[in-house]
Amino acid sequence: MKKDGKQDRGKKQCERCVICRRETDVPADLEIGLRRFYIEGAGQLCPACYRELYR
Ligand SMILES: [Zn+2]
Questions:
Q1: Where are the domains of the chain?
Q2: Cβ proximity of 51 and 22 under 8 Å
Q3: Band of residue 8 on the pLDDT scale cut at 50, 70, 90
Q4: Cα distances (angstroms) measured from residue 31 to each of 12, 14, 28, 50
Q5: CA 38 – ligand 1 centroid, Å
Q6: Rounded to the nearest whole angstrom, what is the distance from the C-alpha of residue 10 to the centroid of ligand 1?
Q7: DSSP code per residue over 17-53
Q8: Ligand 1 ion: Cβ-proximal residues, 5 Å cutoff
Q9: Residue 28 C-alpha to ligand 1 middle, in angstroms?
Q10: 35 CA from centroid of ligand 1 (Å)
Q11: pLDDT of 6 over the 90 cut
């Protein structure tokens, strides 16, 4: 896993979409089992990219 060390203070750290790199609304510390749009082996997707893949 890559770590870029950039963290906005006072703002919740959210996962980025592995495809478009946009920030999702999934908290980085959320259990994988509770995440939506998470693909095992790939990572977190945003709803738009998820829809592209699974339409
Ligand atoms: Zn995306």
A1: 14-54
A2: no
A3: low
A4: 15, 12, 9, 19
A5: 11
A6: 24
A7: PTTT--EEEEETTS-GGG-SSEETTTEE--HHHHHHH
A8: 17, 19-20, 46, 49
A9: 16
A10: 15
A11: no
Residue written as token pair 């509770």: 34
> For residue 9, is pLDDT > 70?
no
> For tokens 């829809």, what's the residue?
51
Ligand 1 center–CA 18 separation, angstroms: 7
Tokens of 8: 């906005």
Tell me the CA–centroid distance for residue 37 and ligand 1, in Å.
10
pLDDT in tens, 17-54: 999 999 999 999 999 999 999 999 999 999 999 999 98
Determine contact, residues 29/21, Cβ cutoff 8 Å. Answer: no
Scan for tokens 């995440």, then name that residue. 35
